[in-house]
Amino acid sequence: MKELNIQTLIALGAFLLALLTNVFGVVVWYAVWYANSEKKKYAAERDFNHLKNNQIEISGGIAEIAKDLDGRFDDLDKRLNSQDHDLLEIKTYLNIHVKQE
Asked: Looking at the record's lineage, which domain of life comes first (predicted)?
């Protein structure tokens, strides 16, 4: 084996320093990449849950509006039936010929 002179030791030290910093850089890059992927995963889940909750609220609102409209249509139907009945009574009282449908 050859003797290690100062130039060889400096070259070996520089190589080891470069190797160590590259390994450290890869570890830091992987940690940052993993953290960003976890943030994106969390953000996607949060966005999905917001959309799901909004959809549930919209569905509930539509159901409530439909229920309210059913009540209004029932009320309107009762009022129209009452008016039909009143018109029939008026026509009968006035002795107007009533056509039956």
From this structure: Bacteria
In tens, the pLDDT along 76-94 reads 888 888 898 888 888 888 8
Q: Is 64 part of a structural domain of the chain? A: yes
Calculate the CA 30 to chain-centre distance.
Answer: 30
**Looking at the domain assignment, is residue 100 inside a domain?**
no
- Is position 54 within any domain? yes
Q: Which residue has the tokens 């309210």?
A: 68
pLDDT in tens, 56-80: 999 999 999 988 888 788 888 888 8
Domain contains 2? no
